[in-house]
Structures are given as structure tokens and as C-alpha cells.
């Protein structure tokens, strides 16, 4: 496991959420990173502490970052979601230890009860106007949001429970 920093920026390149993580490995879906319970995640004006271990998937060329929590009734009792997908620009490695993407507001979420929804459409519409998202960015974000929601509803990997839970189990054993 390699220590890394995950930096999610806001359009076009302002600080947003940042956290320390561990690069676990990669598979056909992308690069997997683990974040330990107790990790402090910060953004300008706010900080939260991770309430459960979780893994983040940075796909190779897609417009999203996905965070997956476990379903163990004890270890994951405080999990805020089952799956949280930030629609972003494609992530890239700024350095060998810094993963970066630009958050585009839209989120596709699977709650702890299994309900799936798209969040922050109002924020996306506002920032599209006030921050001047280019039309191609808007189109990629919308397409990504639609395809992620469909994949999540269909239980397609990596949005099935087995794929991410395998990486989470590997992380917890390390």
C-alpha cells in the first residue's frame, strides 16, 4: 500500500475536498484507494472525520470518482451511504502520490437502505451558469451521471456489492 493524497477541486481549479488514502491496486475498473475510519477529510471552511473504512475508485478515463462503504453491521455501522459517486472530470495523477479530479457537483448515491438517487442537480445548474462550465463538460457530466445511475440500478460492476467489498476486505486485512 502506497500513501496517496486525493484532491477533489472545484471548477476550474479551486480547493475542495482533500484526504489522505492508500493506493491498494488496480483492476479493469481503475485504481482503488482505501481511506481509514478516523481519517480527517478537509475542504476550505469544513472538516469531517471518516466514520468507517471505505474505498474510492478512480476509473481510468471516466468522468467520476466512486466511494464505496462496507455493509458489516458493526464495522460499518456509521456509514453515511453505501455508494457515493461524484461526477468529476477524469481523474489524473498529478504526481505519483497525488490523485486529482475536478468535482462537477452532480452525485449519484445509493443510500444505506438501497435507494438510488441523483443529488445536487440544482448546484450543477447554478455552477454551470456562474462558473461557466463549457458545453462539452456539461455534456460529459450529464452522460456520466445517466450511465452511472443506470449501472448502479442494474448492479453492474463495479457498482455491484462484490467488487468494492472485495477491495474493502483487502484494505482491512492490510
UniProtKB/TrEMBL annotation:
Segments forming domain DUF402:
38-156
Which Pfam families has this protein been placed in?
A: DUF402
Source superkingdom? Bacteria
Full protein name = DUF402 domain-containing protein
What is the originating organism of this protein? Answer: Marmoricola endophyticus
Upper classification of the source organism reads: Bacteria, Bacillati, Actinomycetota, Actinomycetes, Propionibacteriales
Amino acid at each position: 500500500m502506497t500513501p496517496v493524497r486525493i484532491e477533489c477541486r472545484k471548477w476550474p481549479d479551486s480547493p475542495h475536498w482533500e484526504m489522505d488514502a492508500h493506493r491498494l491496486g488496480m483492476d479493469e475498473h481503475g485504481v482503488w484507494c482505501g481511506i481509514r475510519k478516523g481519517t480527517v477529510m478537509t475542504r476550505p471552511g469544513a472538516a469531517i472525520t471518516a466514520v468507517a473504512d471505505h474505498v474510492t475508485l478512480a476509473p481510468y478515463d471516466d468522468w467520476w470518482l466512486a466511494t464505496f462503504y462496507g455493509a458489516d453491521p458493526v464495522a460499518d455501522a456509521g456509514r453515511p451511504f453505501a455508494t457515493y459517486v461524484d461526477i468529476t472530470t477524469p481523474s489524473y495523477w498529478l504526481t505519483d502520490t497525488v490523485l486529482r479530479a475536478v468535482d462537477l457537483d452532480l452525485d449519484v448515491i445509493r443510500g444505506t437502505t438501497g435507494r438510488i438517487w441523483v443529488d445536487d442537480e440544482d448546484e450543477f445548474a447554478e455552477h454551470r451558469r456562474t462558473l461557466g462550465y463549457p458545453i462539452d463538460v456539461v455534456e460529459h457530466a450529464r452522460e456520466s451521471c445517466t450511465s452511472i445511475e443506470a449501472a448502479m440500478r442494474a448492479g453492474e460492476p463495479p457498482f455491484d456489492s462484490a467488487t468494492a467489498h472485495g477491495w474493502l476486505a483487502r484494505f482491512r486485512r492490510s
